[in-house]
Amino acid sequence: xxxxxxxxxxxxxxxxxxxxxxxxxxxxxxxxxxxxxxxxxxxxxxxxxxxxxxxxxxxxxxxxxxxxxxxxxxxxxxxxxxxxxxxxxxxxxxxxxxxxxxxxxxxxxxxxxxxxxxxxxxxxxxxxxxxxxxxxxxxxxxxxxxxxxxxxxxxxxxxxxxxxxxxxx
Length: 169
Hints:
This protein is an all-beta fold.
């Protein structure tokens, strides 16, 4: 079943193609929109009036506050040292590793194909450029881009986002 019985959906959540998502054990706030081929794992929290675009992955330990935009193909991680097995060769279980939490603050925007490394906080109103790899905290209203993502501007100074070659990292 693509949407498990333990998913908590707020009022007026829109899941455009419910047969093409994988949601389990998560909470999704009111009026949020979820695109096709999205996976949201247990204990992930999505706020109200968010947009989670197609092909995105929101893993356990991620908290996305209200009014956040998540572009197509955005990937979150929750383990800084992922391994399939323990040193003795036995398959790891939930007891063998610790989830590293990630928070995306209100009204942030994350561009398509960005990767968000576990343990960061993405600040309120900030903007993550498409294809960026976020390896450390992003300040409120910062515009970051690149791999690793670096500050290239401030959202409070932009009325429209028209990036030029000098804006690139």
